[in-house]
Amino acid sequence: MKLSRSARITLGTLTAVVLLFIYVPLLLVVINSFNGDRSFGWPPRSFTLEWWSRAFQSEGVREAIATSLWVALISTAISLVLGTLLALALQRHDFFGKDVINLLVILPIALPGIVTGIALNNLFTTVLGVSLSLWTVIIAHATFCMVTVFNNAIARLRRTNSSFEEASSDLGAGIFTTFRLVTLPQLRSALVAGGLLAFALSFDEIIVTTFTIGAGQQTLPVWILNNLFRPNQAPVVNVVAVVLIIASVVPVWLAQRLSGDAIGTTRSRKKASPGITKASSTAR
Amino acid sequence: MSVDIRPADAAPGRPSRQALSALLYRRGRLRLAGLLTAPAAWLILVYIAALSALLITALWTVDTFTGKVSTTWTLDNLIQVTTDPVYQTIALRTLRIAVLVTVVDMVLALPIAFFIAKVASPRWRGVLVVAILMPLWASYLVKAYAWRNVLAEGGLLEWLGISSPGYSEAAVVIALSYIWLPYMILPIHAGFERVPDSLLEASSDLGAKPLATLRLVILPILVPSIIAGTIFTFALTLGDYITAQIVGGTTQMLGTVVYANVGAANNLPLASAVALIPIAVIMAYLLIVRRTGALNNL
Questions:
Q1: Is the peptide bond prior to A43 cis by the omega test (within 30 degrees of 0)?
Q2: Distance between the two ends of chain A, CA-based, in angstroms?
Q3: Residue B298 pLDDT greater than 70, yes or no
Q4: CA atoms B92, B94, B99, B103: torsion sign
């Protein structure tokens, strides 16, 4: 679009300012993790590596990370299966009540975490009488993670046409073989993107987790929240925060490389349909 | 048309799988049932059941002696939540914060998304998208916590000579706008990308000034994306209480009340009744915006 020079400069400056607004607070956390002073006065008067060594020795942190990874892995696995099935059902078939299911499926992410949290807490404790554990957390997480997988998968299915699948069955492949050799390769990068997002959402989730986790158990976000207001632990929380910021580069990098749908919105739409080209090259 | 359907690749030793494949191929309904049963059952048995149970629990009460939920039917919770000035104040405050956060994010997201999608050089586009995406993946708690360092007494703002709002409602609005900003930028950016450049050229060839093109060509195409973004920022804010806890000082939101009633006050029925407020607000919003096609942009 043709814009005047001044309009371009204004827009560019605005973008730079917003990026500054995004990164300055995060940068502050990074600097504070080396702050020698517990109270985080600005600017820091002295620097230390003590918090870093304490964080790496902390048993609580390590256990919480292991718990979070376990919960996120299982939730992602469940949501990958359910989300893919649902996307195939809604994209490749027409049936009565499809609109209802379409609306139903976005509810877990459209309704805030507190609603999902208390609804499931109430279901488990009052209605079913189940005691809360890591499994109740996993059930809760899988419910909303399923939606991100579904969104990615259905967006990809909309852009790939079903003629490859038809050709496959015309050539005599059964439906399982067609799924394995034709549909799945087309979906692969979308599923990886959706799975990554699901994993990250689960790993980061705090509100739903608070309402569905058993007493005495801690995922990493729960550990952070529990220790945030303890003056003794706050510097260690800072270090964990920095590690999390650094770790968040990995999924972005992966998603960008795979040029998925929901996360890497730029590349996928410009190339006609990377799904098809990729699928045909891998199937050969 | 009768064709002999016999999958060529099926191993001779697995007739049952071959038969199942052929059966599913012939019967579309059966195939659909196979695909739909597990996810639909999960959504209905877990999620819809839980939401319905929430509605029912809101009509129950708590036995004051045992502290257990008693299944006596009453409208007391609903009446208390809708008429008690305390709850009205908190509900209105939460709504106000949610609207403010949504507006702030929209105002910030529109120019930056436009710049990335249509103005920046192709080489910069990738870099900028990654720069926006990165904080989306950084932990929610880290981001809320980061603002403590900025807003605190002796924090960055004070050092810069800007008067800090301290831990207050304003701080909650700032922190939440910050946290949910990528959720607004991404759908709007995707929306801008879907506007073909040829359309913009046609518009300017026909004599439209950039502002007219923006208003008459781009905006109508963009509406579903903007609404998709607002669903995120609005809904996520409406249910928040952790950020309020971290930077809000004494600011109470609906989530704070729900959390307090599940935990310390041990009054699940009242908590359920309070939780119905955000559900009602969001359902109403979803029904209004459904026609715009925004729900396909989530």
A1: yes
A2: 41
A3: no
A4: positive
Q: Enumerate the residues of chain A whose CB falls inside 8 A of the CB of residue B138.
A: 26, 244-245, 248
Looking at A58-133, list the stretches that DSSP marks H as alpha helix, in order from N- to C-terminal side.
Answer: 59-92, 98-110, 113-122
What backbone torsions phi and psi does residue A208 show, to the nearest 5 degrees? -60, -40
This model of the complex carries an ipTM of 0.82
Dist. CA A148–CA A205, nearest whole Å = 14
pLDDT digits (tens, 9 = 90+) for B27-59: 778 888 888 889 999 999 999 999 998 888 888
Residue of B nearest to A118 (CA): B272
Q: At A188, list the tokens.
A: 């692969």
Domains defined along chain A, listed by start? 33-283 (1.10.3720.10)
Domains and CATH numbers, chain B: 79-297 (1.10.3720.10)
Q: Which residues, in sequence order, are CB contacts of A84 under 8 Å at separation 6+?
A: A149, A150, A153, A187, A191
Helices (H) and strands (E) in chain B, counts: 15, 2
Cα dihedral A164, A165, A167, A168 in deg (nearest 10): 120
- Looking at residue A256, its amino acid is Q
Q: Is B75 on the interface with A (CB under 8 A)?
A: no
Looking at CA atoms only, how far is residue B62 from chain A in angstroms?
12
